[in-house]
Amino acid sequence: MRRASSTVSPAPQYHHLRSITSSTVSPAPQYHHLRSITSSTVSPAPQYRQHPPLTMTEIETCANGVQYVGDIRGGLKPAMRITIMGLVDVRPQSFTVSLLSSPRDTEEDIPFLLTVNFRDRSIIRNAKFAGIWGAEERKVPYFPFTPGDNFKMEIHCEHQQMRVLLDGQRLCDFTHRVPQLKAVTGLRVTGDIKLTKVA
To answer: What is the C-alpha to C-alpha distance for residues 39 and 31, in angstroms, rounded to an integer?
Structure first.
């Protein structure tokens, strides 16, 4: 009398099942000629309930970095948000973000100028009206920028001030010095960064 033997099938082998988690991101295009583009050309524009996205126009390539200028259609309004994303150069000196009364005339009023200086690790805010600069504001809790790193800057327009956030953290405020917000009609970004999104 023999015991009945049972045959156990080997576990099946899988050769094709795999998880793909990485995605390929194309580098930001380089522009060399004067042309008007919409913010959706750079990246998908965020959804606004009341205010349309900026219309971006590149003016020129400068020695100190790429210069972008955008129109704020209808002027600046409370509750409007401007988002700037980019990559800091490996050996940066500075970059600036300016809100302008005329985006293509540097002699016009500058209601808000934010300068990031890597040499002394300062973030300076100021405004210019009738050719005269006001008092500088320098106080910040920390210097958040690192050469070679990505950043996301958000400028929130409130009724009494601009609030600047960096990577989701509050960086500084700037009380409005312009009599009417709607007079702010342009945005300029220059310096030692490579922009990936402006909206």
So the answer is: 14
Structural domains of the chain, with CATH: 35-198 (2.60.120.200)
**What is the model's pTM?**
0.68
pLDDT tens-place values along the chain, 199 residues long = 444 444 444 544 544 433 333 344 344 444 333 333 333 333 343 333 334 445 444 444 444 455 788 899 899 999 999 999 999 999 999 999 999 997 666 678 999 999 999 999 999 999 999 999 999 999 999 999 999 999 999 999 999 999 999 999 999 999 999 999 999 999 999 999 999 999 9
CA-CA-CA-CA torsion for 93, 98, 103, 108, nearest 10 degrees?
A: -100
Q: What is the Cα–Cα distance from 93 to 99, expressed in whole angstroms?
A: 21
Contacts of 191 (CB under 8 A, 6+ apart): 64, 65, 92, 93, 94, 95, 96, 116
Residues contacting residue 122 through CB under 8 Å, at least 6 positions apart? 115, 116, 138, 143
Tokens of 112: 């808000």
**Strands lying side by side in the sheet with 132-133:** 35-38, 55-62, 65-71, 186-191, 94-100, 110-117, 122-129, 132-133
Q: Rounded to an integer, what distance in angstroms lies between the CA atom of residue 7 and that of residue 86?
A: 62
